[in-house]
Design a protein that fits this description.
Length: 171
């Protein structure tokens, strides 16, 4: 093999590797009109990382290099260094689902979980937490029915974060 053929082979392999790997350094938010090139499915823990290696649904490696401390949201759009758009999808994971029929009981459970700084997803008289037998027993004793299921876990991001919190002004 000549030096020229060797160089062409190496360059061809490098281009092939680059096609199968995307690097993300930019967040676009929840709205994007550009076509989505890849979708990555991430669980709650993965969405909380600023540095992450994932594989898209079509098998492309996606490396994420973002500011730490600001979790990715389900449905959020990211832009790769080559200009392609990647959308974040929520992965199905094990969760504890707790529900009740009255708002007072539900509010008490939310208060006690928040008092313990637990990650919690809140719906209409239902909540989801990561499986934890101590927390599950606590909400059961407060009057909620606890079951286990597989679902996307998208907890509230907290009162002082900029995730799900929406207001008409900056704090």
């Amino acid at each position: 093999m000549t030096d020229r053929n060797f160089e062409m082979t190496v360059n061809g392999i490098q281009r092939e590797v680059e096609k199968k790997m995307l690097e993300v350094f930019e967040r676009l938010g929840m709205h994007c009109h550009d076509p989505v090139a890849e979708t990555i499915s991430l669980n709650h823990d993965q969405r909380n990382k600023g540095r992450l290696r994932a594989t898209s649904l079509s098998g492309v490696e996606v490396r994420i290099f973002l500011e730490r401390g600001n979790p990715l949201l389900v449905g959020e759009y990211l832009k790769t260094e080559c200009g392609k758009i990647v959308q974040v999808d929520g992965a199905i994971e094990a969760v504890a689902h707790a529900s009740c029929d009255d708002w007072h009981t539900f509010a008490r459970a939310c208060y006690h979980l928040g008092n313990r700084h637990s990650k919690i997803e809140v719906g209409d008289r239902w909540l989801r937490i990561k499986p934890d037998h101590v927390l599950e027993e606590m909400v059961h004793l407060l009057g909620l029915v606890v079951t286990h299921e597989e679902a996307v876990f998208a907890p509230e991001s907290g009162a002082y974060s900029h995730g799900k919190h929406v207001s008409g002004h900056d704090h």
